[in-house]
Every structure is written in C-alpha cells, then in structure tokens.
Amino acid sequence: xxxxxxxxxxxxxxxxxxxxxxxxxxxxxxxxxxxxxxxxxxxxxxxxxxxxxxxxxxxxxxxxxxxxxxxxxxxxxxxxxxxxxxxxxxxxxxxxxxxxxxxxxxxxxxxxxxxxxxxxxxxxxxxxxxxxxxxxxxxxxxxxxxxxxxxxxxxxxxxxxxxxxxxxxxxxxxxxxxxxxxxxxxxxxxxxxxxxxxxxxxxxxxxxxxxxxxxxxxxxxxxxxxxxxxxxxxxxxxxxxxxxxxxxxxxxxxxxxxxxxxxxxxxxxxxxxxxxxxxxxxxxxxxxxxxxxxxxxxxxxxxxxxxxxxxxxxxxxxxxxxxxxxxxxxxxxxxxxxxxxxxxxxxxxxxxxxxxxxxxxxxxxxxxxxxxxxxxxxxxxxx
Length: 383
Prior knowledge:
Blueprint: H1 7-18, H2 23-30, H3 34-51, H4 56-78, H5 87-100, H6 105-112, H7 116-128, H8 132-150, H9 157-166, H10 173-183, H11 192-202, E1 219-229, E2 232-241, E3 246-253, H12 258-272, E4 279-282, H13 286-289, H14 291-299, E5 303-306, H15 316-328, H16 338-354, H17 366-382
Parallel strand pairs: 1-4, 4-5
Antiparallel strand pairs: 1-2, 2-3
C-alpha cells in the first residue's frame, strides 16, 4: 500500500526534529499524525546512534554490562540451583550466596530470577526469629494456649482475639489465626458432630450380650468403679474372663486413667498368655477409647468391643461383679487406712475366684470351672 506522505516530507520532519523542534509543534504545523512521526523517527534515531563514535561513557557502560553478565554466569555456575527451581529452593541458595559477601543482592537476585523484595522479606523473617518479634510471638502463643485450654478447647480465633483484647493485648484476628495454625489449635466446635458420628461408627459391639462362651480366654470384659472413704476416691479396674466369670486381673488407682486400664489389661495378658483370638469388651469410657490403649490392643491382635451408649446391660457381667464387691465387702466395712482397704480388696478377689459359687457355673467357683475344663481337655488329648 502506497504511503500518502512522500520521502521529502518524511526527511523534512526528521530534519526539523533533529534541529530541536518538538513533535507536538511539528504535528500542529503539518497535520501529520503523532504516531506516524514517531514511526519515522525510530529508524532514524537507530541509524544515528550506529553512526556515533564510541565515547568514554558508552565504553564504561558496556564494560559494566559485561562484568555484570560475567558475574551472573559465575553465580549460575557456583549456585546449587537454577532460575527454574522452586522459589523456596532459590531463596535458600540466595541466602548462602549473600552470606559470602562476594556479589551484590541485585546481581544474585537477577541471576536466579528472584525479586529483591521477596529476598529481603525472607532474610527479615530469618532475623525476626532472634529478635523481640519472636519473643512477642512466643508470649502471645503462651497466652493463646492458656485461653484455649481454659475454654476446654471451645474458643476459636474470634473469641480468643476478644479475650486477648480484654487482657490488654492489641492484636488482630489474622495474627491469632496464624499463631493458632502454627500451634495446631482448632476449636472442637468445628466438625464436632462429624467427629462424634465417625467415632461412634468405630465403636462396634461384637458381644451383643452373648456372655456365654465355650472356652477360656475367648472374651474378656472390663470396667472401672470407684469407692470413697476418708474423703478420698479410689478407682478399681478389673478384667473378667467370661468363660468361668473369673477375675484374672485387677488394679487400684487414685485416678480413672488410661494407665490404670492399660496396666490392668497388661497384667491379665501377661498372666494368661492367650493363644486364641481374643475379644476385649468394655463400655465407652474415654480411657478404653484412648489412642494409646487402642493401639496397644491392636498390636496384640486383640479385637475391641464396646457397649452401646447408655445401655449398661451390654456389660452386665461387670456391673454385677462390682455390685457384689460393694455389697459383700466394701459397704460392710469401715476401713481405718488405705492399706487396710487394699488388703480387703485382695482378700475379696481371692474369695470370689476360689470360694464363692457362681450360678452361671452351675454353682461351681470360677477356679473350679476352669480346672474342670482343662482337666477334660487334657484327658481328651491323652485319649
């Protein structure tokens, strides 16, 4: 397409601009669009620059450019990463290069294609770990933890922020959320229902009130009760083998803890050394549902079984045993010391296993029924 302006017009405009006349004045005088004039001037300026003789200033600029490029090449050779690596990797490499004090921040950032602001923020965060900033964060974390625990893990970021402000800590909810995330704190209100439903589905009742079994160490049941005297509470945990209703282990503690039930079960397991698949049935107490205890049973290959919520008959064997213990011994005696109380419990356990007939055993004692079972099986083995 032929241009509406000839070569002479083009050269005249370029000459006027070289003589110092502004583009705006030329546009107003000639009516030629500004964009057209600029398009004419670009190649003219390039040709002019190419014809210029090298000056000392230009030489130094070129020299500095070469040095910068050589420095970048050297950085890339010695660096542990490349510009294509993830930002986290590049920041680590930049930190090492910066500590060497060999190259400027500008050059090392340009070499690895990282904005200087990003690098400075990274370095600043590192310094904060050893300053008042870190001390303040640690102080806030401590107060947040106290508020969180005092609320029974109910408070979230909003309520904790409000409580902090009442205590004289000017802090944003954004900061509280950040600190809570670092500490792994979340309000139990979040997803509480889903967590409850999920846990309930895991608590399976494998016994279903079928308390008559065919051999020892097939199903054990357990529970914890307490007895108070002299203004003190003592917790009694017992494990019973359903086959002969024999108490195979018991422990007395001053708190209803996971350690109490685990210690009682361990004593039973080490004493009996069951070889058949074993089911361990209890109520839904938190100590029996504790992760450490469940993991311990799983490591032994023991199947856990749980009563339904608010159905005491699902563990009626233990309910009946503790009722007998209290009516036949604990409620009948006024103990003068803890030692006297513990001795009385020991004696009752021996009496229950060795002397007290049990209706379920056709009025044999638990020890008698077990002895009969093993005698029959040994005899069968001999035949």
